[in-house]
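Quick illustration for those who missed Monday's session on complexes.
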Amino acid sequence: MTTNLQAYRGSLLHFLADPAFSDESHPSHAWHEDGLLIVANGKVQAAGDYATLHATLPPNTVVHDYSGKLLMPGFIDTHVHYPQTDMIASPAEGLLPWLETYTFPTERQFEDTAHAANVAEFFLDELLRCGTTTAMVYCTVHPQSVDAFFTASEQRGLRMVAGKVMMDRNCPDFLRDTAESGARDTETLIQRWHKRGRALYAITPRFAPTSTERQLQLAGELAAAYPDTFIQTHVSENEAECAWVRELFPNSRSYIDVYDSYGMMRPRAMYGHCIWLNERDRQRMAETQSAAAICPTSNLFLGSGLFDFERADDAGVLLSLATDVGGGTSFSMLQTMNEAYKVARLKGSYLPALRMFYLATLGAARSMQLEGTIGNFAVGAEADFIVVDPQATPLLQRRTARRESLEELLFALALLGDDRAIAATYSAGRQVHVRETT
Ligand SMILES: [Zn+2]
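Prediction with zinc ion bound:
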């Protein structure tokens, strides 16, 4: 096989460990002000100093010059609903009325495959425009919504995780499966899509209130039968919802214990929100390597609550950041960091920018048990990366010109940046988005 070798010059940043738990002997990140990323057949061959690595390139290798910009791994959004793209920024008083008024009618449209395909294309365009190269995606209850999504992501060669929502009670008839049909459709979709190309399947009960005990039991059985699949659901998002779960499952120790009792806490299980947890819940998450998808724009928008970073870190829970569009108000992981920072402040803790960029890249990959595949520039990792422009707007240009450290540069990007800061996005070494310049 002939090697397709590409080289990219720019300031290079990627993570090796969690900045919250690193020290000088175990650095959290690699930073090369004048760096070079070498990609062979869609995978990282080397990442380091330009001066050192340039000499190793075969003569006549084209070097794409992004000097003045940052090269970093693509962002990973660990919780997002593609069918809710068209209802982002819809007003409602809290989660449950918002579901009734906007979410369910919007999701109903996905019984139409052409509509699903159309939204999937727009959704993927938007992710790539924002520099997100991998996401954990909720489809709707309709199996065809999953086919439409994976067909679109496969055509672009993207590393994506998705699944059919399972929902057999407390929802409109037009969005209801049954315990048996939901499990059967899920298994068919696992066999069709899981590990086909870069697609990965997530078993996706929407949340405990919309599944019967029988449905949760069957979801847990699938999770055991297909241990390398993902699981995704919502937990402890807001107080009214938690009270509802206590009524529906009076014998459970807590909300997350409902999932635990059906075998759904395990590696590759991603729990959205995780706001109203107790210490035992956090311990169980850490013990089982279940991960938390923190959704700050959504939590602020719906008034759900504030994620507690300090307690999650004390327990050693795997953490990542997520947009939760359409409850979330932006597809941008930079804007998600902006709000995560403020949520942490309101809880009395502090999130350095380095930590936020870690959570949006390697932290997410670790949460998904995909370290070495995505999330950093380890040799052999898939070359999903972005070109970030610190001069994307006049204000960013002015602020970043005065930065005195990497932390200040990243902090300005997180607080002031959005899709405009993403100059280009690459997936498996292929350019899949380039910012239009006016
Ligand atoms: Zn959600």
